[in-house]
Amino acid sequence: MVMYSNKIGVMVDSFKLDVRAGIKKAKEVGADGIQIYAVSGSMDPDHLNKDQRKELLNYIKSNGLTVSALCGDLGGHGFTIPEENAWKIEKSKKIMELAKDMETDVVTTHIGVIPEDETNSRYGVLQDACEKLGRFGDRLGATFAIETGPERAKTLKKFLDSLDCNGVGVNLDPANLVMVTGDDPVEAVTTLKDYIVHTHAKDGIMIKKTDPKIIYDFFAEGGIGDLRLEDYFAEKPLGQGKVDFGAYRKALSQIGYEGFLTVEREVGENPERDIKDAVNFLKALLR
Predict the structure, then answer these.
(1) How far, in Å, are 226, 233, 254 from residue 34 at the CA level?
(2) How many whole angstroms separate alpha carbon 168 and alpha carbon 151?
(3) Which residues are within 8 A (CB) of 194 and not within 5 positions of it... i.e. 6 or more apart?
(4) 152: how many CB neighbours lie within 10 A of its CB?
(5) Is residue 1, in this structure, part of any structural domain at all?
(6) Alpha helices in the chain (DSSP H)
(7) Residue 130 falls inside a structural domain
(8) Are the C-beta atoms of residues 95 and 44 closer than 8 Å to each other?
């Protein structure tokens, strides 16, 4: 029987508690590590001085945990609007510095929908922003990881191949692919193998296919008319959606990925139970 060496992480914010209570819950459900949103509130890098960062890291370690990644998703339309990018790039750099202080090299985010057409003006805007952050990551020893979902894996790979830096990678979320683009997560692992630095463990189903840009515009704008997201996709507990986790895990092993599988649960009335069930599901998968 194959034994996998991956560690299991959980998104602290999925517990819907404050950061320290979420860290304690992560330990209680049996996780090895945590991912934390670091864009506002107590985790805003502007609100954490050097001593506070050290104290937080010590608290994480005292619970037997490590940080798998920080989430630096600044919302809106990502980096597709040129007028917003100056402040978003500077904020993202601060989050990458905070990540290093938390002893992780990874910051994950959504950058906005990458157009398939390279002549689309948004393509160049995204390239410029990602190259600035990627070069900063090169100097810092950190990776700015684009989360899968808004575009197909082959479109994301083409975009990454076009960048003149090494500090931009991929946070592979298999459920986003299944729910929004209809991509096969196993094929996505192979396509993006040179870039994967972190993964989410999430499951779901597509109900009705539509343009992914419509879905992500809905998230960015807090709703669009009478559009109902539940008509298009649904997140499910691990093992109850369309992600073939056995094949997905095998594919990750075949490309040599030994990093975290981090549980992200964005719906559900009892997040603690759901996250604990997900951790147990992954433990069985990794045996």
Answers:
(1) 36, 26, 25
(2) 16
(3) none
(4) 21
(5) no
(6) 19-28, 50-62, 82-101, 121-140, 153-161, 174-176, 185-191, 212-221, 245-254, 271-286
(7) yes
(8) no
Number of domains into which the chain is organized:
1
Question: Residue 266 pLDDT more than 80?
Answer: no
Could you tell me the pLDDT band of residue 215, with boundaries at 50, 70 and 90?
Answer: confident
CA angle 137, 172, 255 (to 5 degrees): 90
Distances (CA, A) of 188 to 6, 115, 199, 202: 19, 18, 12, 15
- Is 2 domain-assigned? no
Which comes out higher in pLDDT, residue 229 or 162?
162
Q: Say how far apart CA 54 and CA 52 lie, in whole Å.
A: 5
The band of 225, judged by pLDDT with boundaries at 50, 70 and 90, is low
Residues of the chain above pLDDT 90, percent: 87
Distance between CA 31 and CA 276 in Å, rounded? 9
Tokens of 225: 């008319």
pTM: 0.95
Average the pLDDT over 152-177 and give the result: 98
Q: What is the mean pLDDT of residues 73-85?
A: 96
Supply the range of the domain harboring residue 95: 8-286
Q: Does residue 37 lie within any of the structural domains?
A: yes
**Which CATH number fits the domain that encloses residue 171?**
3.20.20.150
- Kindly report the backbone phi and psi dihedral angles of residue 271, in degrees, each rounded to the nearest multiple of 5, phi listed first: -60, -35
- Provide CB contacts within 8 A for 112, sequence distance 6+: 77, 78, 79, 80, 122, 126, 150, 216, 220
Query: Who has greater pLDDT, 211 or 160?
Result: 160
Q: What is the pLDDT of residue 268?
A: 74
Count of Cβ atoms closer than 10 Å to residue 90 Cβ: 10
Beta bridge partners of 108: 71, 145
